[in-house]
Amino acid sequence: MQATKPFEIGPIRPPSEADSLLLRVTRNCPWNKCKFCSLYRKHPFKARTVDEVKADIDQVAQYREDILDGIPEDLYQLQPDVQERYLHIMRWMANGEESVFLQDANTVVLSFDKLREILTHLRKTLPSIKRVTTYGRADSLNKFSVEQLAELKEAGLDRIHAGYESGSDAVLELINKGCTKQMEVEAGRKVKAAGIELSIYYMPGVGGKALSDVNATETADVINKVNPDFVRIRTFVARRGTELYDEIEANQSGQCSDLEKAFELRKMIEHVEGADGYLISDHICNLFEDINGHMTKDKKQMLSVFAEFEGLPEADRHRYQLARRMGMVRSLWNIPYLTKEQSRTLDDYISKLNTPELLEEFLQKMLRRYV
Fold it and tell me: What is the tens place of the pLDDT at every residue in 200-258?
């Protein structure tokens, strides 16, 4: 029997879930008030029913069976959304059928019983799965006990991605996150105590110049108290159409520069002590994509990237910033391998952007392409 009904897929997932099966459990975001985000702003939140999600899981199983029986000969004649689902499942199967990401922004807003039933059906229907992950806000996670979270782990939930953004109450209030530092600490400790992996997100620069230091040090304090498995860096870039973008436009002097955001990250790393997890700079908006490693064992190595950069002549620092923001390089070590054409392009821009103001304006323009 050929699958004809498309299962739902939401609009976003972490970069680390690129090879995962995407399964939509809730639609959009129940908070939907963060001043830096516009992704769900025009779309109301809705929790899908357990029966709807289980039906989608069954559809995934049918798509998988169809592919195992032989890719449908009329694949490219099928309706576009069905065709897209076949291609999605084919990619997932090609990568081992091992991971599933539950969408959208905050799946853990569902009740314990509903989540457990969905996870149980998912694991039973698709037994090849080795990892199930999802997004979860601190306030929603705190409604669960450690024992309940441990039961969700037993039912099949392996990792939670939590957008902390900052550990500073002043910054969290500024961006209208709807959470406090204490809530982040409590939620993180519960998740870790339950045996679920925790991946938190930090936004260098989101508090602006005035709050840059506390954004770094208070976030480091949260990391020290929670000891997450992963800290993923998402350097802040103001997105047009958000409240924070409008506020920054009204007060240009308050925004951190490209370098100030990077050096805020350095300060955060310096203040992390004894953490066992890994820092991961897996995003195009980060100035240094190669700052990755164990937050204690590799601390010196990660900080050495900043020292290497600062040791360059100013013109070479500008050259790297331009190359990075124009998508030519991922690290300082890529610079010697630029093509002659790329080098000429950089030289042309450096000659034109001959003041700090012009350079920064261009860098911000380039960054906005990615958000």
Answer: 999 999 999 999 999 999 999 999 999 999 999 999 999 989 999 999 888 866 899 99
CA angle 138, 101, 238 (to 5 degrees): 60
In the predicted model, is pLDDT for residue 323 greater than 90? yes
Q: Phi/psi of residue 323, each to 5°?
A: -60, -40
- Three-state secondary structure of 250-290: HCHHHCCCHHHHHHHHHHHHHHCCCCCCEEECCCCCCCCCC
Residue with tokens 């802040």: 236
* Global pTM value: 0.94
Local structure of residue 239 (DSSP, 8 states): P
Instruction: With CA atoms as reference, report the closest residue to 55 among 84, 24, 80.
Output: 24
Question: What's the full length of the chain, in residues?
Answer: 371
Helix segments in the chain, DSSP class H: 50-69, 80-94, 112-125, 138-141, 146-155, 169-174, 181-193, 212-226, 243-250, 258-271, 299-310, 314-325, 340-352, 356-367
Residue in 206, 196, 182, 259 with CA at minimum distance from that of residue 228: 196
pLDDT at 85: 93
Higher pLDDT pick, 247 / 72:
247
Q: How far apart are CA 220 and CA 214, in angstroms?
A: 9
Q: Which of 302, 296, 366 is nearest to 331 (CA)?
A: 302
Treating both helix axes as pointing N-terminal to C-terminal, what angle do 356-367 and 314-325 enclose, rounded to 10 degrees?
20
Give per-residue pLDDT as tens, 338-352.
999 999 999 999 999
Residue 325 CA to residue 262 CA, distance in Å, equals 13
Separation CA 191–CA 131 (nearest Å): 16
| Whether the Cβ atoms of residue 232 and residue 200 lie closer than 8 Å to each other | yes
